[in-house]
Amino acid sequence: MHFLNKDAKISSCVEVYIFTAQKIHVGEVFGLPNIKSAKKRVLVAETRNARNKANKSALKTAIKKFEAAAVEGNRTEAEGTYKVAVKAIDKAAAKGLLHKNNAAHKKSALTTKLNSIG
After folding, report:
1. What tens digit of pLDDT does each residue of 16-54 get?
2. Most buried residue among 16, 33, 54, 57 by CB atoms closer than 10 A?
3. In degrees to the nearest 10, what's the CA dihedral of 16, 17, 21, 25?
């Protein structure tokens, strides 16, 4: 009986050790920063990078949809996707994802392509 109690203690310690070894905090920073504010900046930068990446991807998708409609030559579909693409470009410029001149250039190119359809 005494030996079984020691086994029970050893196995419970191992279980606790395994549990703590697998416990990883979401949003925990590994690496260089040791200061709390620097760790926070790393986390905030990660979330902002993810958000910017998603917004940029949505912008590219809207532009590609317009270009696909323009290649088909379907004027009504191209006009609908043109409005969506221009709105996406304006939003991206407002959020700082694109420079305002770059946004103007993209809108101008889309307008030229739309006018060449019909």
Report:
1. 444 445 444 556 777 788 899 999 999 999 999 999 999
2. 33
3. 40
